[in-house]
Amino acid sequence: MRHEDPMDLTPQERAAFDALPREAEPSRLLEERTVQALRERGMLGGRRAESRRWSGPIVAAAVAASIALFVSGLAVGQWLGTRTIATSVAEANHQTAMQAAAAVQRAGSAYVTALATLVQLADSSDASSVEQGREAALAALYAAVGELVLLAPDDPVSVSVRELLEPRIQTEGTGQPEIRNVVWF
Does this model's pTM top 0.70? Predict the structure, then answer.
């Protein structure tokens, strides 16, 4: 695209003008002088090369901060992990305790049902089998009361029942007369 110049150029001027390069790369010296002049007038900030250099105290502070951040991350992670494990163990223990309580309930119900059946069969002609069932029921009751006392040693009812059963269990195997305790309420 050619621009029309209002002034007419002579052919020599036109040839000299056309001989000029269309694009010229400024020299490195010109660029540096321009940047320096802009800095002196306050139009440009400090030198880039100087702003990228870190001094010793800055590097030391950055390293110390990164180590502190890393250690605090480890501590928080350990604390959260421990809390999660403690919660899981507590839930598992609660679940296990609930399962044990349900098992005690089922076993107690089965024990009472078996004793009720034994009572109904007490009038039968097989007295030795009924006696054997009675002894097994007393042994199971004594073992259960012993565990109950271990579970709640300050419970006066379970301790009293155990004290009532102890002489009976001890004398049954020896053939000595039975000692009966009377508990007055």
Answer: no
d(CA 5, CA 26): 26
The amino acid present at 94, given as its one-letter code, is H
Token pair recorded at residue 18: 């056309």
Q: How high is the pLDDT of residue 26?
A: 77
Q: Where are the alpha helices (DSSP H) in the chain?
A: 11-19, 28-40, 48-52, 56-120, 127-151, 156-172
pLDDT of 184: 59
Exposure class string for 82-108: b at 16+ Cβ within 10 A, else e: eeeeeeeeeeeeeeeeeeeeeeeeeee
Distance CA 92, CA 94 (A): 5
Give the position of tokens 């007055």. Answer: 184
Closest residue by Cα to residue 137 from 165, 95, 158, 159: 165
Q: What is the tens place of the pLDDT at every residue in 96-152?
A: 778 888 888 888 888 888 888 888 887 766 777 788 888 888 888 888 888 888 888
Contact 158, 149 (CB under 8 A): yes
- Report how far residue 67's alpha carbon sits from residue 73's, in angstroms, rounded to the nearest whole number: 10
